[in-house]
């Protein structure tokens, strides 16, 4: 009798497996991509699911690069319909897509994200320049005696870097290299500061590889602490340690006002206005990409894009701004909205 | 007195002391373990207990047909798209008529949760006659407002709310228009980006379906493998090799099983991503070694005399196993299965690979609907920027711990109740 039971259970399980094996038509939108865009995309998806008859889209936070890989794997309902990215699609990724039959891809810029350098609200508010950040955090810096040569980063306190800064140990908590935020920080802050030395900038035309190695490397002697992908953790650590600074996305600053304060960078505080206008130097664009071949196959894609690009979502007073996304300027938003609703495909020439 | 007795007497005090020290070490280790557990529970309960309550604000809401933009409250389409936020905003403006500027209005509107309109829809759907009437309703407060009422004095000062918003809230509170209620939606709804709307029911259902698939697959397979290896298989190099491999698999990091699932079930067989079915199969691979090992131990513990007696009475080897060995080994096998399941319930790493780490609002209705599981939900909430998610994370951890404690208690109970000694 026991055997019969076991056989029954086993056959039921097998039947269950077989019945669902064919990847049948999907009736919900599948979205992958950047963890920076995730809080915004999920908000739109939830509203879209609540206010229409379509199921709520499913969103996986895979990181920008991971999302591109899944997105470009091919056409067919087992592959995602949309990927979010906190950087533009690379030419190589576009070609990968083309090779796998993902021909028509529509690009939508949705807004901006700022990267903030912040410390505890109890500590002193500081004003940093890109050069300060480069000198404090790069692996190799120009010799402090003024010679045009590189030495291992000798700076121990912020005061060593710039006499106007407080006399505290350099201690910065930030994301690890797998994070899109870190990529952007390396590119905008460290390289931005590096370029202010003309002789370092000159290396770019001679030897691009060496230039990147100098201008995008972060010191590994303990001054920069990789605090994992969890930005909440960084915020909590900053509250406990007023001497430390943290590097993370603007939305975390926005949600934790009162506990932490952001440093001015190049004379500008990170606010909605300074990030949108580009005056605050550490800002980047956020994107999503739509697979046109899936429009009409998976129901609701057009509706989702329409919801995302509606004024009540991405406008200056929209609900995404409440979540900490910085909206595009009015003209750009109008252009982008039109492009998004028509789902104009990319040619590939605009990428590099 | 002999020399030996003298020696014993001299060393006696020392040996007593050593004995005492030895016990003290044991007690200290247990105390350390308990202290760690206590710290964990205090931290989690301290952070999480607030999430079980949420605040509501009382408003005079008029179901105005023009504002709602509908004329027929029995039409489902109209009900779905009606502007419920509009009537709530009207109610707020009537309560605070002094608010005029656009920025201030925005601040006022943000006091009420964006999800407060859905109950209005349900009310209107069940009582179409409400259209055009005014009712006094309790509306769900926004998470920032909720945080504000839950915070102490210092916390209220640090709140994200503006001074005007705080003044309005004080006015509402003084009029008795704010109340705290048990957060039932936490146990009945799926995930949400708004902390006040987010619940764990979706994740609990996902965990249930995943565990169901895991149990249905891993228990029969595991028990069959254990019985064959223990009762029928010849002892040779090949079975030794299998044994080494099973023990080895039990120690393989779980993420490897996720990679395997991604390559084989999703890549090769084309099964959908993010569904409990695939999650359950992957977790089956992970729990199989645990179940096989514990089932073999349970079978080994059945004394050979029982087998020999059955054989002596003319039972076939299959009858011996099914009628005598298996029923006697069942408590041990079940205990192993429950411990394996408890382990699988807390697993996130392999599910990352097969897409179950995702934002899913709709509560799954079966093993092929996209779903996430409890530990993944905890991970996702811990990573969200809104402060209210800190409490929700801890509350979800409490629920997960409750499930784990229940399962482990069941395992202990089964062992105590059904265990036989020979």
The CATH architecture category of the largest domain in chain B equals Orthogonal Bundle
Reading off the top of the CATH hierarchy, the class of the largest domain in chain B is best stated as: Mainly Alpha
Shape of chain A: globular
Distance between the termini of chain A: 68 Å
- What's the β-strand tally of chain B? 4
Strand content of chain B: 5-15%
Share of helix among residues of chain B?
A: 55-70%
Class by SSE composition of chain A: alpha/beta
Could you give the count of β-strands of chain A? 13
* Oligomeric composition of the shown chains: heterodimer
As for the CATH topology of the largest domain in chain B, it is MetI-like fold
Main beta-sheet annotation of chain B: 3 strands, antiparallel
> What is the CATH superfamily of the largest domain in chain B?
MetI-like
Judged by helices, strands and strand pairing, the structural class of chain B is mainly alpha
Lateral strand order in the biggest sheet of chain B: 2-1-3
Low-confidence stretches of chain B: none
Identify the CATH class of the largest domain in chain A.
Answer: Alpha Beta
Biggest sheet descriptor of chain A: 9 strands, mixed
- Integer count of domains of chain A: 2
